[in-house]
Amino acid sequence: MRDVYRNLLTTLAALLALWLILGFWPLSTGSRVVLSLLVVLVCSVMLWQQWGVARARHNVVNDINDENLPPEDFQGAVVLVCGDSAALFNTASRHRETRQGWYLRVNDAGQLPVLAQYLAAVRPALVSQISVLLAILPERHRVVEDLTQSLRGWQRAVVQCRTILQGLPPMWTVTWVSPPTACAEKAPVWFTTISNRAGMQVHQPGQGSLPLADWIKESNASGRFSRLSQILWLDSLLGWQRSLVGRLLTVREGELLALKPCAQGFCMAPVGGQAGSLWQQHIANITALPPERATPTDVLPLPELLLSALPRRRGVSRRMQFWRYAGLLVGVFLVLAMLASFINNQRLVRSVSDHFALYHRLTGEPPAPKLQAQQRLRADVHLLDDWQRRGEPLRYRLGLYQGLRLVAPLEAAISDWTPAPPPPPVIKNIVQGPKTFRLDSMSLFDSGKSVLKAGSTKMLVNSLVGIKAKPGWLIVVSGHTDNTGSQPINQPLSLKRAESVRNWMRDTGDVPESCFAVQGYGASRPVSTNDTPEGRALNRRVEISLVPQADACQIPDIKPASLDKRDVSTQKMEK
Description:
This protein is of the alpha/beta class. The chain has four domains: 2-57; 74-310, no CATH class; 320-415; 437-548, CATH 3.30.1330.60. The chain contains 14 helices and 13 strands. Strand 6 and strand 7 form a beta hairpin. The radius of gyration is 52 Å and the shape is rod-shaped. It starts with a helix and ends in a 27-residue tail after the last strand.
């Protein structure tokens, strides 16, 4: 389950990184593609490594399964039993469970850091409850150098657990020795000492605990010589413990840190040691008589009395760890996203400011550069208006968008200058015709229609009184609309309206059709903006103008109707 949470965190980090690259940071398309591929590659490698580490970890501790591990909601102490741990467990068992503790057997010093790491991975909430018990059985060792080397190895393994368990785990020692032959008591007797308490306590089944001094007085008063033998035995054991075990653990040597046991226990119970063991050698040096070998019990008693003295810390479950790291990732993402949004908004403001400064720096002479700068400002306004309607892109959001305050200055700058109209073209040797007549389409036609309305004749007569057909001049009738509707509809409508005006002029003035040219432009040639009702009204129009054309309006057998022979008469020439 721990690996699942770790994979989820890796995937979440990759998704947030991709979102940051693709949605926020101002990068080119190539850079985004390269960084996205790099993120995907790194995420894939990390997932593969995590799978390999998990597999290797399970292979190292393949004899530890979930049945041997305490549940994640276990409230007692989790004890990793090191040293001479075989005597405390059955042959086929890797753990022993009691009301107050869960004892896990560690076979060798190299397995201790691995087992600690495995527990931290699959049971992170129990890390604060883990302690290391160094079990010592002097009757199971015959050579001092072998015991010394073994203790050094366990010391090194405990120090290696410091980074895994967030500090040195609590370490305590318990020594089991067989009671003296003169001891009549069959039940095990415990002698315990705790680092933060003064004195040693004696624990006997059914009698509770007593300070060692009171227990000695009780034994003298009752005359029980077996207790005196136990006291002498204990004194010898303490001397041996201090001279060998205590000296090794509490003195720093090289990179090995000194380990101060938080509690110590001594148990007198039948151990069943080897012949010529260290304990027998020690007793023989004191009494000149080796002790008798005791008959071993199935498993040695567990030091339940010392569990209450172990320090306790607050644990963190896998779910809590996951949400902590997920919150950290989201927090980092938000900080980087806000930083990217700030940079994007600053670049937007700087870009518009550059266009604005260039526009004001130009004087308009010649007008082309300033007109081009004005077009840039119009494009900026159009973009900002579009963002205001549809919402600005995600990379500008997070409460840092500054485009709204740029619209008003841009619109004011655009409207404060217009290019001067170009001078009318000078055409030599050609007589200029009358000006263009512009007729309002809505006064002539109904909306969307091309048939002249009733009552429009008077307007046409008053407006077109100056239009006369003349040889060499072409009467051009062009129709225009606003941008309402689509171009496929507007262009035919404008042409039909121009044709209706042409037909009225042709039929009313009896002007030949060869004097006319009809054009329909739709909304392609506006004279005003289509963004306001007034501008659209100006764009809905029919324009009539005279255009010089040498072969236009030449009608044979027709005499002029006026003294000006250039006018075309509707009267036929006399034969």
